[in-house]
């Protein structure tokens, strides 16, 4: 679904510009890439952000971010397993 950026009057009704459309039309910054990567990592990425990422984002930023978060995730799981094994006496 495509939303139009409209301003002005139509049939006596004042149409305003949708501010969320402006935010979606910007290149993602560092924190937007981190948020998008984390959201995609757990499967809750919004369609608006996904479109922004594919349209304005740099593929290499998302690849590097995904690899970093994958390494952190594996490291955390390894620490949790070691902690459980140590606390159980195994």
Can you give a write-up of this model?
By secondary structure, the protein is mainly alpha-helical. It has a domain at 29-88. It is built from four helices and two strands, in the order ββαααα. The protein has helices spanning 19-24, 30-42, 47-56, 59-88; strands at residues 8-10, 13-15. A two-stranded antiparallel ribbon has the order 1-2. A hairpin with a 2-residue loop joins β1 (8-10) and β2 (13-15). α2 packs across α4.
Write the layout of secondary structure elements.
Elements lengths: L7 E3 L2 E3 L3 H6 L5 H13 L4 H10 L2 H30 L2
Antiparallel strand pairs: 1-2
Helix pairs in contact: 2-4
Helix content: 55-70%
Count the DSSP helices: 4
In which order are the strands of the major sheet placed? 1-2
Radius of gyration: 21 Å
Class by SSE composition: mainly alpha
What is the string of SSEs from the N terminus onward?
A: EEHHHH
End-to-end span in angstroms? Answer: 56 Å
Principal-axes shape call: elongated
Number of strands: 2
Contiguous runs where pLDDT drops below 50 for at least 5 residues: none
Strand content: 5-15%
Largest beta-sheet details: 2 strands, antiparallel
Give the integer mean of the pLDDT values. 82
Give a brief outline of the structure.
By secondary structure, the protein is mainly α.
